[in-house]
Prior knowledge:
By secondary structure, the chain is an alpha/beta fold. Helix content is 28%, strand content 19%. The strands form three sheets. It has an eight-stranded mixed β-sheet, with helices on both faces.
Amino acid sequence: xxxxxxxxxxxxxxxxxxxxxxxxxxxxxxxxxxxxxxxxxxxxxxxxxxxxxxxxxxxxxxxxxxxxxxxxxxxxxxxxxxxxxxxxxxxxxxxxxxxxxxxxxxxxxxxxxxxxxxxxxxxxxxxxxxxxxxxxxxxxxxxxxxxxxxxxxxxxxxxxxxxxxxxxxxxxxxxxxxxxxxxxxxxxxxxxxxxxxxxxxxxxxxxxxxxxxxxxxxxxxxxxxxxxxxxxxxxxxxxxxxxxxxxxxxxxxxxxxxxxxxxxxxxxxxxxxx
Length: 274
């Protein structure tokens, strides 16, 4: 075509040489079935992202949905421990099979592939990103309604790989009151919008402590700024999780599935509305 710049993104003509941008999405395993894929992210570490991932999988499971967790935090995997899962994942000529928790939540983590759970994962970024892709495309996720992807903090290789390679229905941003919350949320929001991934909402962890005697809310880490920050960036504040010794005890014992998590009702409702 005359005067063609070969930049199809800025042209509305339907000419024979027109080419559409190639999708970077990795295909799932041919035997896999995962209806919804949800990323759980944070702009920095230490805010309880893996905890929120685990609690969401448990809450959705208790609501009657089949759930799974893809642990993309390859160098700091904690998902198997909080579920009390220590056996190794197995595979066949068909693919890798996730390990099931006591309540049939499907789990895939690098800790399920190591000979010893305490072995360090001293790998560089491209190799780690490749492992995450394999956890998606080589694992047989069996009739999962909601697959949660526990991402490492920040905006490095692995989050970028997940945003580009997995068909995310949306992300949940995790934060906490003691951090520079506005910066954390803004990083995650900007990353999601840059990659055209919907933001389902924000969950604040360690939001408050309930006094065991009088029931008063105590702001251990300072007053929450979550509502103001959520409004600033046009993000829904889904829920706020308290500081509760029962949470730590259940995680340490590998019994997170025994926890009742009433704090995540709005988050459950948001996912069920997808």
